[in-house]
Structure formats: C-alpha cells, structure tokens
Amino acid sequence: MRIFKLFIVFFFLLLTLPLKSHASENFATSYEVTYTVSENGSTHASYDISLTNKDSQYYVASYKVNVGFSRIENVTAKDGSGSIAPEVNKSATGYTVGVVFNDEVVGINNTLFFNISFDTPDVVQKQGSIWEVNIPGVFDQNAFTSFNVHVRVPQKLGTPTFVKPESAGLKLDFSKEQLGKSGISLGFGDKQSYAFSLDYHLKNENLFPIRTEIALPPQTNYQDVSIEDISPPPLDVTVDSDGNWLAQYSLLPSKKIDVTVSGKVKLYLYPKKEPLSEIQLSKYLKQRKYWETTDEMKKLAKELKTPRAIYNYVVNKLTYDFSRVTSSKGRVGAKGVFDDPSSAVCLEFTDLFVALSRAAGIPARELNGFAYTQNTRQRPLALVQDILHAWPEYYDYNRQTWIMVDPTWGNTTGGVNYFDTLDFDHFTFVIKGEQSDYPIPAGGYKLPGDEEKKDVSVAFTKDFSFEAAEVDLLVDLPKTVIAGFPVKGSVTVFNKSKTPYPKDMVVVRNDKLMPKENKKAVTLIPPYGKREIPVLFEKTPILTNTTIIATIRFSDSLIPQQIRILPVYLTVWGLGGGVVILGTTITILSIIARKTRRIPILRQEGQASVRGQGKKP
Fold it and tell me: Which residues touch 610 (CB under 8 Å, ≥6 apart)?
C-alpha cells in the first residue's frame, strides 16, 4: 500500500481580512490556541495543533500557517520528537510559518501533535485609559473538528468591561461555535477620554449680513463634553431638536472668519437613559433624502422586524468598497445601495440601516464623528473630509434610550459584534435625525483651496474633570409700572462654564400680583449658551398704588427686586400730563381774556350805544 505525504497550508485570520482555509479531507484538525497577554502589552501566542489521520494511505510531512499579524518575533515550533526549525516568510497578509515534521505519523486514527508559538504586539493595545484585545475569528469553521481559544490577561487589568462574544462569559474561553466568524473583542476600563481641537472656516459670499452656525460636539447619552475655548466666541449656542449644539455667528458682507474650538470628551460604554414620548420619536420614522424606501424595501423591513435582524442583514448584504475611501464618488443613499450592494462605505451602511429601521417602525438616526482605529482595513473610516466615520443608532423602548451600532465595522472585521455593545472609540460630532444631510460635522467646514487642510485633531487624555456648570442671571423687570397694565420682563441665564448646564427651573414669585408664581422650565444650556425666560404678571386695577417685592430663584441664586405700581396720575407721565393740561388751560383762558379786552365799542352818530336812565333834557 502506498502512503502519500501531504503538505498542508492553513490560513488564519488574526488581524487581517479572512482567507479560506485549505484543509485535507483526510485529516481531522483540532486547535487549542492560547493568547497570554503580558503587562507590557506583548502577547505570547501558542497554537497546540493535532492532525488525526482519517485515511491509512496518507500522513502529513509538513505544514504551513499564514498568520495575519504585521509583527511577530521569537517564533518556535516543536513536535513529539523535539524542536523544529520554523521557516518564517513575510506574506501579503502577514507572515507564513512553515514546519517540516520530525515525526511521521502513519495509520488511521493516529494523531500528530505539534506546537507553533510566537510573540506579537498586535493582539492587545493600550488606548488611552482602555486596554483592548482583538482577535478576529475563524473564517472557515468546516476546516476544523474543533477550534478553541483561551485568552489570559494580567490580573491588574481586572474584570473586562465587555466581552465579545458574550456567551463566553468571564472565563475568556471560546469554542468555534461561540466564535463563529465574529472573533474576540475584549475591553478593560470603564471610560475613555479624548482632547480635541477643531477648526471651522466661515465666509459670507453675499452682499448683505448673514447669521450662520457651526456644529460643536454635543453631550449625548454616551458622552460628556467640556468646551474649553471657542475663539472667536459665538453670539449664542443653541440646542436643536436632535440635541446638536449649534454656535451662532454674524458675518458682514465678504467677511471671513476661522473658528477654533478646543475641549475634552469622556466616552462611556453603556448609554444613559433618555425617555422619549411617541410624539418625540415619530419624526425618526419618516422617510428623508438618503433614507428613502421602495415597496420591496418596506416588505423586507416588515419581515426583518427587529433592529438585530436589520443589523445582520446590512452587515451581510453590503460589500465595503475600499476604493471609495479616497474617491470622489458621492453618497448613493439607502435605495442606491440596496439596488447595488457591491460598493458601500460607512454612509451607505448607515443609510440602509436607518431606512429599513424606519420602515419597520423602529426610530433610527445617523451619527457622524471621529472613530479611533489602528487598522483601517478592519475598521475603516470613509467620510473623506478629515477621515471621519458614520454609524447609526436606534431607539430601544425597553431600555428607554438610543443604542449605537456599527454595521460597517461589523462587516469589515469579519463579524465582530458591534450590535450588543459598541466600544470606547466612537466620538459623536453631530446627530442627524430630522435631516439626513445637516448639521455638518467638524471637518466639513472647508473653503475652496483648503480641502487638504487638517481641521480635526483628537488625542487620548487622562485629564478630564466634569466640573459643575455655573451661570449668571440677568434680571430685566421694570422698577415702575403704571396700574392697569401687565408687568412684563425677562430673566436671562448665561452659561459661563465649560460644561452644559442641565435642565432647571426659573421661579419668579410675589405676594400681590397674579399669578403669584411664574414657573418656567429651562432646557439644557451648552457652554457659551444662554436662555431668555419671559416673565408676565396680570394687570392690576387702575387705581392700584403699592410696592411689591419679586423674588427670582434659579439654582442656588435668590434675587429680590422691588416693583412700584402707581396709578397714572402719580406717575411721572401722569404728573407731567397734569402740568401740561393745567398749562394749556391757563394759556387758553389768558387768550380768551385778552380777546375780551379788545372788543370794540360801537357808536351811532349823536347817540351813545349804551342808554342810561332818566329824563330827556
């Protein structure tokens, strides 16, 4: 009986795109892979591999593994008879490690055991305050009888904040069934902080003054933002219905200004609650430009039903087109990519998720911003201006909050789970819910000729303290009011701090006017922002003559103000009017008197005009 030598090459995805494994049907292949992370960030990878003969006519003489790491060192190999000198060669996808066995294991059901080990810095990264472990999964599970992965981390890292896939629990032992194609992603740490500097370029091309605005990174249910400086300072910073912070500027004709915004952001893995009513959420169910749906898409959405099913559909349906990252091809929208799924970037992954979700009755919207990545093949960015990223979020009624997901990275990582838990790498610049193309994120405010200029700078920082916001009050209530007229005024709240001032209440009380209490809600005020609250008390009887003390309470401030209410005749206007009337009366009487003295005495010839009494002469 002839016995044939087999030379087998296995391809593994570790940190690159998956390549299909080429395994002989004549062998049962099992892997026990252990990644041991050291405190200095290096990882020791050990592959214990067994090849069991399923046919008596074959045995394995050599073996190659293509590992997708960009850096490996200290490569060793051995089988049951001792050390093997590995042959290590650089490949297009990483490195190929080849071994020629000392042992010749012949015979059905006999097994050859061997080990390949090496060190790599590519498994674990220290990113700011977070340690991340990323090990992509097995592309062709059918090539293996079993494939188990064990991750061992230093005790000082503590309990992982997230484990993907979640089914493995905290033991960090994963079977091929648990892995699927999703790979392994671990995070250690509960928050991440970045410092940012953003440049905006504004110009008024009109012949008349304009008022314009720029979008600042807002506070969301996933992030806290501190605005350290805005230069030049804006007229105001408002909050739109989606929660965006919009800094407003006035520009004269032909005026050009460059605005620089610096600050810090702290990202959280799990979102804060954000209860919203059905009315508030209804606008996130409407079709918009780029979020349009056809009858076919609507039918599909009703079949998919859930956010998870829609996410999985988008991840598996679309193909990421890396050639578009630097191309000028425009955004095609949900309908365009549904019809041609072969050329998509993050905008299309997002558009299709939002459109299908809305068609299924699930509120959804788009986020644009910065996303941290060290591997642009696995986690690409595609908003060409300053290389930003787009991802969607949907509203979860049970959890009462918006949930961010990233179908783009779910696709390009070969299935890493970016649905159940995201990461600490997504920093939101703008929220697009009512409109699909506004506001414009930082990095998109470029003038002709400045397209290549870098306007977005983001770096890790540990120095983030979310200080309590402070405000100034400007009370504008009249000191004197004419009786019979309402009392009108306002209270303006200025946020003079780096952080947003939360929702609060302005209360203006008095003991004589109606209503006795003006109570008005103050919505969140961003840094550099203000809120003007109108104050109105009903008119008093026209003869009212009194003094009231109004007290303005906001936060810890209590400001008293005296208001004098006078009848019209006691006011300056009334007294002035009386003087005018009296003066006018006197003037009129004087004129009449003078005219009376000037009446002529009429006489007839030989006879007085006035007859006297007595006898005639």
Answer: none
